[in-house]
Structure formats: structure tokens, C-alpha cells
Amino acid sequence: MWPSDDSDTTGAKGDGNDSASGQLPTPPEEQPKQASLANQETVWVRHPKGEGEASPEREESQASEQTVNVEARRQPSEQTVNVQASQQQTPKPPPSEQTVHVQAPKQQQPPSEQTVHVQAPRQQQPKPPPSEQTVQVRRPPQPPEPSAAEQTQIVPLQPIAPPPQQQYQQQQQMPWQNTPPPQPIPPAGNMVAQPMRIEPSGEVHPVEAPSEEQPPPEAPDAPPKTGRKRRGLVFGGVAVVLVIAVGVALAVPYVSNRLGLPWAPNVPKGDEPEPAAVTLSLQPPSDSAPTPSSSGVNSALSGPASNPALGTVAGTVIDPATGSTLWNHNATQLLTPASATKLLISAAALLKLDHAMQLTTKVVQGASPDTAIIVAGGDPTLSSLPAGKDSVYPGAAHLDDLVAQVKAASGGKITKVQIDLSMYTGPTSAQGWAPDDAPSISAAPVVPAMLDGGRQDPTVDYSMRSANPALSLLQEFSSRLGASVAPTTTATATQGAKVLGEVKSAPLTELINNLLSISDDNLAEAVARQLAIGAGAPASFEGGAQTALNVLAQNGFDTSGAVLNDGSGLSTLNKVSPKLLAQLLSVAAAPTGKDPRTEKLRPLLEGLPVAGGSGTLSDRFDAPNAKDGRGWVRAKTGTLSGVNTLAGVVLDKDGRVLVFAVMSNGSDANSARPALDAVAATLRGCGCG
Description:
Blueprint: H1 16-21, H2 56-60, E1 98-102, H3 164-172, E2 194-198, E3 204-206, H4 226-251, H5 253-259, H6 294-301, E4 312-319, E5 324-329, H7 341-352, E6 360-365, E7 371-375, H8 399-410, E8 416-420, H9 469-481, E9 484-490, E10 499-504, H10 508-517, H11 521-535, H12 541-554, H13 578-589, H14 598-601, H15 603-607, E11 633-640, E12 643-651, E13 657-665, H16 669-686
Parallel strand pairs: 7-8, 8-9
Antiparallel strand pairs: 1-2, 2-3, 4-5, 4-13, 6-7, 6-10, 11-12, 12-13
């Protein structure tokens, strides 16, 4: 019978031989007493190694024997005995062979103690004769019934050898005193036992394994394959990476904005508001606007144009849509125009030259490999400022760019620099200029190469100019190049010389826009000389001035009696009529397609300063009688000592464009300029229908 799982019976582990044999050694002093069992009585002893663990000897006996867990149950006529094997009491078999199935207990105790627990039945049943005593064994229902060859499994037995005195004490104990409560009996299929043979002498021997060939033991369950698990981990990692990548991508503002995700920075927080109603103050000219009448304009200007502050005054008003003259006050009188001369030079250049033309400054190889020559191309706007910063000339080329090109092309071998100023001829100042006009805050001596128009401060329009702007450029260039100015500063470049660097100005239309807006004298002189060069005339004051008048006359403008000595208007000897100035502006402001000259001259209007807003008119039209013209008048100014001119365009209240030119000589600028502003502002408010 199976002992209780909580049995105190333990087996001490010996060496490998004892365990394999399953013998129970007995002390030499005293042979253990055997339990009085009837013939053919079976005792099961559990091996101490635990469930499922078997020695090689046990594996060999699996085919012939199988451990069967049994439970003794009390029958009405049969005795139930629970026996636990120990070395204290060994059942003595009959002379014939008796088999004891030994099972080691689960818990190990010191080898000196081993207990046999015998549990007495609650009711004493009649004991059958010794020859007929029966112990009924019932198989547990859990495992399937094994085959005959598998009834017994051999289990190695650990030797247990308690001292004799302990054995005697254990024998004296009553079987019911130390019997533990019954415990669940494990299924027989989970236990492994070895059959033992008890000789008449009391010796115990393991049963020999059957001689027939045993079937190979079942292979243990193969360990789970890790390949699939590894692949699963790889796929899982890839999936996590993809999820993270998608999450990061969706978090990028550009992606989230394009997809309209809820967390997008630009996602609308609510319904888009209705667009606010906007009323434009500026209206384009209207073809259907009422046509101003000559009488209406004359009536409106009778007061402002007769202001004594204007001195000698001449002027005219023209309707560009029809070409008709609305007001004529000595319009053909020749007066000094001052800076209004720039309108004539600019108009002639737009009519004659390519609007995309640029002024070039380049550097070529000199007479020796270590010498470089700046070939002046007539660009006064070349900037000394670093790239990214603008001087008073937006879009100008930068000296640093030219220096970098020369260093790269020469390999840094340039040690001397010179400049070629042969493009211009004649004097550096014109007839009619005052001695202090150049250098001044308005102009520098006219040469074909300079930095920032010769200004000391490239960001300030009215900044003092250099007395020798070409030399100033040469010195700055040599310093940035790491070279020195040659003893002979000027030289003429050889035709076809190797070009080491080249930079270009803004296009012609932008240059004209700039010179009209800020009334730049040196830039106007540069354009006049390009006009002369384009016509094959000398690049001089006289060449530029005469070419301008010729071009205007060739294009149908009345230049009768006009005299020009420069392109800037600094000369007090220049004489033009208000009619010529008004004609140029009238063609520029004419409706598109009406006059073929209009397309070429339209850039004139873009450069005109805005009253109270830009250029030379930014601080004008402040008087009460002139405020109506702020923002509506665009005009070119001209101011010299005793000379004041205003010529431009205005949009009247009816939406009609009017062109005007008013010239005042013999007047003081402080009083004449406000008087001219009042005339232009009157045209804005009159309607004059």
C-alpha cells in the first residue's frame, strides 16, 4: 500500500552505487526486525528522488513492471493496512520469492531516523488465517491500464540506516500515535518504483531486468522551437518601429497640416470667419469719369497759381486720355528746370536703350601676372556694404563679390592694382555747376567708377561725397584684396585681357526709378553717358545732354529752344519749357495702346515720388491747403537757389488722371515749394467738370 505523502519516512542519499542498486544496508550490530505480514503481502515504498526521476536501472525495467499507486480501502470483511517501509521493520517473506515495491518519501530526514506509520482500522475485522490473509489493492482510476510488459518500473532505492536504538524506539511506538493524517495519493502513472527481492535471510536485492530486448524509451518532449518565437520577436520589433515612425511623421507640422489632423498647428480652431468688408481708397483711373473742362481747371487754379511766392511762374495741365490742354500759363516759356532735367534724361534713355541693360564693373589681368586693373563701366552704385545689406541703391552689386572672384581667378597672386577710367571723357563737372556742387552732399565729381555714389555713409542719401571717388574705390579694393595701389594708379586695360572678375548693376528701369525717387545726381549723369555711348556720342556732359534732346526730338517731342548742359539738372544754364515736361508725362500716363511710346515711357511714373510718402516728397504737402494731395500726387521735384519746379500726375476726385508741370524762377524755396504743393493739391480736389 502507498504511504501518506506527509510521511516522516526519509531516505539519505548515498553514493551512486547504493542508489542504483536500491539495497537497504543494515547495521552490523543488529538486524532489523521484520514486520509481521501475512504470506504474499505487498509493501510499497516511495523512492526519495521525487516524481518522474529514474535511474538507468529503473529505465531498463519499465517494460516489465509499472508502479501502481494503491490505496487501501476498508471493506466489511477485509483488513485495511497502511504500511510505510523503513529500515526498522522489514517484512519477512516466505521461503518462496516475495516482491516488495519500495517508494522513497518526498521529504528527506537525517539518516538516523526513519519511521514506520501504521494506521489501525477504526473497527477490528476478523483476521483471516495466515494462509488466507488478503490485502486488497485498488488501482487509481486516473492513468490508463498499462500493458503487461509495463506493470512495474524500477526505481533506485536510497539506503536508510538509522541507529539500532532509534529503531528500537520506533518499534515501541504505537502505530496510531505517529500516523499522519491521510493525504491524497498521487496517480500511479507519475511514480516510478523498482521491484525488490527479499531473500529468506532478510537480504534485499533488486529484481533483475527482463532479458528480452526492451523497446527504446520514449524520447523526452522536444524543447519548444525558438525559431518561430524569434521570428515573432523580430516582426513585433519591426511593427513597433513602424508605429513609432508613423507617429513621428504624423507629428511633423507639415504632414499634420496637410492631412488636417486634429493636432496640426494650422488646423482651424473653429469656423472660418466671414471675410471683412474692405473698401479700397485707391481707385484706378476710370475711362468713364467726367472729362475736366478747361474753364473748370482755370477757375480752380486761378488762385493758387497766382501766388506771389512763385515768382516767375509757367505751367500747364494736360488730360492724357485725350491729349487736350486744360490749363496753359506761359507753357512754352523756357525756364531753369533744376532736377526736373532728370525727366528728360530718363525719358530719352527709356526710349533709346534696352530696359534690361546693366552697368558692368570688371577686373582684368594687368601688364604682369601680379597686377590687376579695375575696368570702370560707369556704375556709381557699386556697394561697399557686405552681401545682404543694401545701400541707398537697392539691388546694387557688391565689392566683396568682385574681390572674391579676383582672388579665386588669380590664386591670390595679385599684389598691385590699377584702375581704367577711359570710359568717360571731358571734365568731371559741368558748365553751370557751382564750385561747391561737387563734392557736396548732392554730388561727387563724375567719374565712371565709385563706391556708393561717392558717399561716406552708403545708407544716407544726403551724405558728404568723396572728392576723388575713383581713388577711394581703388584703395578699398586693394585693401580687401590684400594688395597695394600701384604707383601709377590709372592704366588702360589691354583689349582681350583675361577677366578676373565681373559684377553688374541693377537693370536700367530700376536705376531710373532710383534716380527719380531720390533725385540722385551722379546716377543721372551715369545714365546720360550710357545714352551717349548708345548713340555713338562721347560719354561726357555735353555728349549725354545733346543726345537726350536729340532722342526726344526724334520721338516727336517739342524740344524747341531747350538747352541742356548736364543730365542731373545741377547746371543753372539748363533751359526747358513746362510744355516739354508735361508732354513726356502725358505720353507716359496715356491709356495703354493709345500711343506706342507709352509702353517705353511708363517706368517714368513708377519712379515719381509720392506726396507725403516717398523720395523727395516724403516731407512735403503738409500745409492745410496741400493736404488733399497727400498720396494722390506723384511728381518730380527740382530745386536750386531761386529755382523750384514740380511736374507729375494726379488723380482727381472724379477718378480722372491729370498731368501738370509748374516751374518757378526767382523764388525762395521755403515759400515757393508749399505754393507749388497747393497747386497740385487743388487739381486733386477740383473735379473741374
